Amino acid sequence: MTLLLESPMNYLYKTIVEAARDTFSRHLWYFSQILVGLSFFDDRIGADVRRHKVANLQILASAESAKHLHSPPEPLSATGLETCVTQRTAAVFDVLSLNGKMKAQIFLVKDPTKWNDDPSYKELKTAVSEMKVVNESAERAIALMQQYNSSLTKNEEQKQYHLQLVERHRKQYPTCAKSTVLNMGSGH
pTM score > 0.90 for this model? Predict the structure, then answer.
């Protein structure tokens, strides 16, 4: 990721560099102080970086980037992934498992070279490996809807009719609750 974000910075035309940087930054919605905690379970990250990340768990979270980092620190390859870790990052452990922060404390006090032998680390790492990437699911859902829409009809007029019908139905039944459907049916 860091190479992708930094490679346009060497380009001669600054307007193109700025446009590329802005475009890439819009795709960093997932890059947050909490989700950066998933990198604790990445075997490609060395022990030194892991030690720094553990130490940075004591840093107070910045108010300016409460939810998302709009762009990584400048430049990320020079400062390192560990600079994104704060106290807020520890919340990822509770997302992964019930009492996850307590389980994480068991392996975080050990040297990172020993983490792979720790049962708590293994449990949380398994939870990370079993996570579904939301974007992939969303893309599949969109593709499925597009396939469904094209299977209904090839006639553009009929497609527009179906869209209007769905819109009218959503206005008539704003929620899927049984009470809404029953109230609508009784004339209220």
Answer: no
